[in-house]
Amino acid sequence: MAYWIASSPHNHNQAETSALMRLVIYALLPGIFAQWYFFGWGNIIHISLAVTTALLCEFITLSLRSKSNKANIRKQLFDGSAILTAILLGICLPAIAPWWISVIGAAFAILVVKQLYGGLGHNPFNPAMAAYVMLLISFPIQMTSWQPTLSLINIDLDFANTFSTVFSGFTLDGYSVEQLRTSIDGFTMATPLDTLKTNLGLGFTVFETMQNNIFSSSLPLSLGFSLGWEWVNIAFLAGGLVLIAKKAIAWQTPISFLLSLFVCSFVAYTISPDSSASTLFHWLTGGCMLGAFFILTDPVTGATSVKGRLIIGALAGLLVYLIRTFGGYPDGVAFAVLLCNMAAPLVDQYTRPRTYGHNIDSAEASILKEKPNKQGEVE
Amino acid sequence: MSINDENITSGSLELNAESDNNLTETAEEKSLAKQTLKAEYKELAIQGLWKNNPGLVQLLGLCPLLAVTATVTNALGLGLATLLVLVCSNATVSAVRHWVPKEIRIPIFVLIIAAFVTCVQLLMNAYTYGIYQSLGIFLPLIVTNCAIIGRAEAYASKNPIKQATFDGLMMGIGFALVLVVLGAIREILGQGTLFDGANLLLGDWASVLRIEVYQLDSQFLLAILPPGAFIAMGFIIALKNAIDANMKQRQPKIEKQTIERVRVNFDS
């Protein structure tokens, strides 16, 4: 009688890609809901457009790659990775951007950034962020046309109006995107980060800027940092914490990212409080929480070792702060993510964890050296 | 035995034929030399335009290739300038190849190339001032284009003038074609036009060449900026490799004739 002996991991946790992706998508829902509440239907329209385009592009490339295996195509198409990429892209896009922005972005993310490099698990860059940066560089006007929160707009931006704005550039009553962004007193209202940057350039202090409507704490539901955005970021933070609790993502990257951003903004705030915003402002505006919990933690493009994740997170925090403060673009999360993606393989190279029982140096030399020593000790 | 006999007789016949043809040998040799020369030129053309294209295969001179190809006009301007310099430098290098000491050949090649680049630069300054301005620093930088010094070193310094000139022409045309294709892709994607500003290069009549492929509300800036050049270049190289692989697949496979031997197994 022969016994079948298996080696050690006896209990497998049957985690599939699709299950993980589904969990991440569920964790994104509170953030999407907050976006819907404050900015209207635009992002949901863009998400659905991007998902459709991404699935179409994924199907085309997969069927080009594996012509014979139909079941394989179906499995890879619905493993959720393309859908997740498209959802992340749709969240980042301005709510009233024209429809072709999300179509071009999703097609670029899937065709060029993901599939040309070999598909899931082979892409060096985060597809959603690479597509976002491509769009931001190519179409700066459309990509920076964020409208203020619904409570500040004079025009009622319901589903039909948003739909018509996304597809034709005008609401049903004929208001243009520019008019949607203009407040009662004729000023264009930009995002909080944008406004802060412009005002600091004009010589105002941060405190004076914070009196502006878009930061105002007089309106209901405002915490006084950046109306609307703070709740979107808090919702993404909640989703991210769920992911950490479920062990879907590692805690090191987001924690080190947020700490690094805290240190940078705190140092700057102590040195010159008039020209630098508070840490909470940095944490709760732009794509900070989305980047920290959903994008930097991408298992494919991020670092893999514990130390590496800490380094990448800290680097990303520093870059976000530098780009936001000194860069030409108001928000720097996407650029920071791409730069960190580039650095990740090198960081991994230098932070290789020690294998149990071996020295950190190259294995062959250490094994040869150690053996006689240990014997000597025993004797 | 009979087979051997046949061989001998046929051999003697051939010998007889050769001695008969002794008189016409010189003419045949001439035609043979002509044929080999023709084959050489054909090979040079294929190498320069496709198999060993400086832009697509050698990947030489990428800096101007990527920097100035935002429009077809700019690409064509730089392509023609490079072509002219390449032909002249190849001819000159080949002409002086016997008198150039091996040890200092590179500085001499660079001097020759720099002289021609200066000529081209002055000519373009005089006759196509618009293009001269939009090419900017990349026109004098043709001196440092590795494709030119590469051809001088690898081919022109070892071959007669005619072949070297032809090689320069073919390599230059290959390079210019890549520039124009890249320029066309980037111009169509970026601005939706073709031959925009061709009058700067070709004179006033050429403004009719401008084609509006489609109307864009906002330019696709990525295609005009350097990253677009890298991405488009990657796609062109991929396309070339795909065509090569396709042609290789289509070629009928020549099956090697293997000599089969019968093995006799005495045990069975």
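qc> The CA atoms of residues 70 and 224 of chain B lie 5 Å apart.
qc> done
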